[in-house]
Structure formats: structure tokens, C-alpha cells
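Protein of interest.
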Amino acid sequence: MTRPLYLKLESELSRLRSCDNLRTLPEARFGYGDVTLPSGEKSLNLSSNDYLAIATDKELEAGFLSSLTDRDEPLMSAASSRLLTGESTAYRMLEALLSRLYGGRAAIVFSSGYHLNSGVLPAICDRDTLILSDKLVHASIIDGIRLSDATHKRFRHNDYDHLEKLLAEYASLFGSVVIVTESIFSMDGDRADLARLVELRRRYANVLLYIDEAHGVGVCGPGGLGVAEEEGLSGEIDMLVGTMGKALGSAGAYLICDDTVKQYLVNRARPFVFTTGLPPVTLMWSRFVMERLGGMTDRRERLAAVSARLRDGLAAIGCPTPSQSHIVPVIAGSCARSVELAGKLRQSGFYLLPIRPPTVPEGMARIRISLTAAVTEHQCDRLLEAIEDNL
């Protein structure tokens, strides 16, 4: 006898399949910058978040592996949470480096960006807190907000006049107000106006800023520390989120904050308290990369140049994009159209996947192009030709 729950799940899967919105795990094999399809053909990987091409840099990887000869702790597993025996020298060294890079502020490392965003806001926000979030913040932030006891209101995407109206109406009713946004948005590739947000923070004594720099770290700023560094505003962001799992080619995430916030999170952030620590080898690789990040200006410049070339090229063929960064969407509209376009682009040698609801709003299904510093001008021009031929 089939259980009622299974029948319900099968019905929903059937519905998703009927509207071209069923997700399946890819069968491709991911290599150093390319993807091998089940047919054996190779495609250029434009669906990763390896923005600086660090994860696929064999030379950098070899240099790191050769540095592992002098060690006095296990490499491959922490085997418990950080509050038990999962704490390691590798954690302390990475957090000390992050603290130095961000001007001496406290740094705390989580096992992933999802753990961080779903854990910090529930820990620090109570019923006397108002969270004002951009409508398009990442799912991990939304889940964190839902888990909190705070009152939550959304402001229209990058609409700071709307945010200002909400502050004027509600800020005085709460002990604390936390404004939450991303610096570079993961689906549209556009940027928040951090200067405007900092100005609002200065105006209200009870307002704090929570900025997720997941797609800005590595890519922006003279030291690769993100949009806030680029704009000279890092010191005015109360809680700044960075990830090691995208441009830095590693795993894990970090929060830059006041030391009081860090100590509170060690005690109250459930994804931190109840999660096995990251393997020391992962932390050591993250530190190895972070130590070299400031010297990767050439990669950032190449990425910026090829991103501008693609955005300008799309506009020239009548396909304008909201992007201001290395994340460049091509809006297809329907799920079926996005699936069709992705398939044709893969046939042309570009590994791109459809992005569909609920990741993006209904009617806004798309191809999300994630450029890396390894993409050449020639490859960019070929991609533009393939898009124009298949739009």
C-alpha cells in the first residue's frame, strides 16, 4: 500500500514535470574549467561560482598541497562541532587572518553560507527587532528571517525610497532594526547602493546593516574583500557576510562583526553550535587563498573586462540585462523557453542551466551566466553569437 504522503509527493513531482520545472541532478562531470557531458563532449563551464578561476587553478592547488608537509593535526575531518573537539589551529589562524584583513574586527567562520544566513538572524533578533529586507535576498536569508522572532517587512528591490518610508513609519516602534540585503544579487547581478544604506544607518541610532557579500568577495575591492571595501564602507557595515565557497574556490563562510556579536553567536547560533566543524584541510586552503587574494588584481581586472564585454554585447543584440557585474542573466520568460535555450547553448559548447521558479519569480525564468577570470574574449564573442542565434 502506498502511503498518502508518497502519493502527495508524486503528484507534486508530476505537476513540476508537466510545467518544465522539475529539477534533476546533472550527470555531467565537472573538471578544471570545463564540463564533460554524458555524450563525452566537453563544454565551457559558465554555471559555477568560481569567479576568479581559483578552484580550477592546478598550479595554485599544487602549491597548496606542497605546503602541507609541516602539520600537527588531522587534515580530513574535524569529527565534532567546534564547541567540542572540532576547534583547530586552522580555524584560529583563518579567523585571525580575516580579522586583520578587515581592520581588526571580529571574524567567525561557519560551515557554509547557508548555515551562516539561516543562523545569525534567529540568534540575534527577538520580538523587539524589526527586519527590513530587500525583496530579492537569497533563500538562506529568507529562511533565517522565518526562523527568527522578529517582525519582518520587505522593501521593493533596491528601492531605498520605499525603505526610507518603512524606517520613518516603524523604526521608533522597535528596539533594533536590521536592514538586510546583498551587495551583488545572485540572480540579476545588480548591486545594492551601500552608500545610501550607510547614510540611513547613520540617521537612526537603532539601525544595523547586515550585508551579504557572497558574490562580491574576491571580485570587488583592491584587496578582493568585496563591494564594501571597494566603496570604503566596510567599517560601517555591522554584520558583513563573506563566503569561501564561490570566488575563493573553497568551502565555508564568515561573518565580520563586533566581538560581542561573535561571542553571542558562539553561544546561540544553532547551525554553529550543532554542526561538525569544517575539515582542517579546507580551512587551511581557505587561508592559503585569502593570503594571496590581494595579489589577484589581474584576475579581477580580466573578469571585469569580459563581464563588460558580455553585457555590452547583449545590449547590442537587443537583449539588455540588469547586470552590473560578472553574473549576467538572459531572461527567457517561461520555464519551457529557459530549458530550450539552455539546451541549445549546451549544444553550442556552453554549459548553462535554466534558472526557474521558485529561485526567480514566475515569468522570469532565465539562463544565468556566471563568468570567470578564465573566460577569454573569443569565448565571450562565441557565446554572444550562440545567444543571438537561439533567442
Summary: The longest strand covers residues 176-182. The longest helix spans residues 297-316. The chain has 15 helices and 14 strands. The chain has a mean pLDDT of 95.
